[in-house]
UniProtKB/TrEMBL annotation, chain A:
This is Alpha-ketoacid dehydrogenase subunit beta. CDD domains: TPP_PYR_E1-PDHc-beta_like. The keyword Oxidoreductase applies. Residues 4-179 form the Transketolase-like pyrimidine-binding domain. Gene3D superfamilies: 3.40.50.920, 3.40.50.970. It comes from Evansella alkalicola. Its cofactor is thiamine diphosphate. PANTHER family: PYRUVATE DEHYDROGENASE E1 COMPONENT BETA SUBUNIT, PYRUVATE DEHYDROGENASE E1 COMPONENT SUBUNIT BETA. Pfam families: Transket_pyr, Transketolase_C. SUPFAM superfamilies: Thiamin diphosphate-binding fold (THDP-binding), TK C-terminal domain-like. Keywords: Oxidoreductase, Thiamine pyrophosphate.
UniProtKB/TrEMBL annotation, chain B:
The keyword Cell division does not apply. Signal peptide: none annotated. Residues 45-334 form the Dehydrogenase E1 component domain. The pyruvate dehydrogenase complex catalyzes the overall conversion of pyruvate to acetyl-CoA and CO(2). It contains multiple copies of three enzymatic components: pyruvate dehydrogenase (E1), dihydrolipoamide acetyltransferase (E2) and lipoamide dehydrogenase (E3). It catalyses: N(6)-[(R)-lipoyl]-L-lysyl-[protein] + pyruvate + H(+) = N(6)-[(R)-S(8)-acetyldihydrolipoyl]-L-lysyl-[protein] + CO2. The lineage of its organism: Bacteria, Bacillati, Bacillota, Bacilli, Bacillales. CDD domains: TPP_E1_PDC_ADC_BCADC. Heterodimer of an alpha and a beta chain. It comes from Evansella alkalicola. The gene is pdhA. Its EC number is 1.2.4.1. Pfam families: E1_dh. Keywords: Oxidoreductase, Pyruvate, Thiamine pyrophosphate. InterPro entries: Alpha-ketoacid_DH_E1_comp, DH_E1, PdhA/BkdA, THDP-binding. This is Pyruvate dehydrogenase E1 component subunit alpha.
Amino acid sequence: MAQMTMIQAITDAMRNELKNNEDVLVFGEDVGQNGGVFRATEGLQKEFGEDRVFDTPLAESGIGGLAIGLGLTGFRPVMEIQFFGFVFEVFDSIAAQMARMRYRSGGVYHSPVTIRSPFGGGVKTPELHADSLEGLMAQTPGVKVVIPSTPYDAKGLLISAIRDNDPVVFLEHMKLYRSFREEVPEEEYTIPLGKADVKREGKDISIITYGAMVHSSLKAAEGLAKEGIEAEVIDLRTVSPLDIDTIIASVEKTNRAIVVQEAQKQAGVSAHVVAEINERAILSLEAPVLRVTAPDTIFPFASAEDAWLPSYKDIVEKAKYIINF
Amino acid sequence: MEKTKELKNIESQFKTFQILNEEGEVVNKKAMPKLSDEELKELMTRMVYTRIWDQRAISLNRQGRLGFYAPVAGQEASMLGSQFALEKQDWILPGYRDIPQIVYHGVSLEQAFLWSRGHYQGGQMPEGVNVLMPQIIIGAQIIQNAGVAMGLKRKNKDAVAITYTGDGGASQGDFYEGINFAGAFNVPAIFVVQNNRFAISVPVEKQSAAETIAQKAVAAGIHGVQVDGMDILAVYAATKEARERGLAGNGPTLIETLTYRYGPHTMAGDDPTRYRTSDLDDEWEKKDPIVRFRKFLEGKNLWSEEEENKVVEQAKEDIKAAIKKADSAPKQKVTDLIGFMGEELPYNLKEQMEEYKEKESK
């Protein structure tokens, strides 16, 4: 086993699939010679050639259309949107075209496209680079939305995403790209889409989260443990579809829950988790299910980012409120 | 706008390519495609058939027996001439008006009617018929066309991808991205812009300062040609050339066909008298593709009233049978539709499947 950062694990997953299936193509802006602006495709063009790993003209909508057409003719496209804030340029291709391909053709055609894209706050990017827009995708029927929080998960989930026969939006939190290393097997393995992971077991409260907030939640759980509160931290890993069984089993055990996301509060993934808990487990609850989120403003200018993003302290505070409710 | 001499020079290069004039006379012998008498008659048959089908579709729509319908009369040469230049293995990415092309590429009339009605079987393209579902979003198919063409090239298929849009579609960002991608990757793609002069109500003069749509190819570094879209021989010849160019590895082609839709934009309440004059209608009806081609064929003793009547009767019969067949399609159930949401259904759709099975069993 090797020690890998999340970005290395992502490259490794693509390398694995490029080797494994000659129909896998990796493309986007700067992904070829340059290896991607974050080096996610580092060395892949050299290893697999310009036919398999290539640069496209600078046009996100065109990249999406290219992926659809290649998918229709037997390829398995892995396209990169350089930053997920640029998704609006390619929203039609994703939400109105790929996501509906199977449905509109009554099952005849499908779009086996993986859309990889960096996102997430805390790295002081320019505007429209860091926004958490997964809620928009999660409300789109026909696409899966995957957000890994560790190098190990990133590799197994990305391999599953590439092998999936329907479109998968695979969002990579920029703050996690190089923040830590962990053991990642060099051989291939998959982690099923739609399966959450209990990152920390506990009996007093469930903290349901994903992405970089998994790490803030684990830190919060450590703090809570010092005060005798054992929090269970659930990493959704796939935010659409949810792993409802894992969520409900945890809530039935702890009887209390908070949902933590980096995105703004209104609508979105956490609101959906709360609604599902209310519909399925309200009689198990000792307290309302609350959310820890960013406020409902535009993602702020870089220097205001730290004040805007939810912190582990916010999580501790809300967890205690629920425990003492 | 006062255009410079240099700009005017560039724009004037895009002269309308024509083979048959309005009188059905060959004005460009050199460009005359090699078509047998049978093939020439087949072109006429298809245009007459499609004109009757269009009339019947409009009337079925008025009776509430057809769903969404975008009339095609006037555009027969543009649609059918370009399709006739294709081979079975080629892909068509149509817009919502481009039903005649996909029918002549292998989709049945019955299926076309089911698509109009929003029945899922309308989108289930038969195996070996390389056609996408007609696109609703203006321009979305144009970028996909670059992708399909790239896929065909990479799989070493002896095939091209062709897509259709209108003059309005050429204003979309996806149009420019599509032709630019196709050029940058040198793929066998054909982009047909059927310039019928109006994007619903907005005239082409308001879409762009460009004299022609064909000239937009220059910016993408690809071939562009403006064709008399009421002249089926010119449309056929231009498409055939574009196909050969693409397959030879010499890049994509943008074809602008100058045409006119006699009817409304769609049957959903559009009233062309609000934005078109009857003088303009008359002017274009004089260019009619069927009238002109009939004159041409009659001059060669290849066509008669009797033959035309046979086609008309055949079309009427086929449409009657097809609509009857479409009427007997299974009633759509929500559970059918849920089943098309993915290879595997997530928990929410599985639950909703059960819920609707229960509802549907009552």
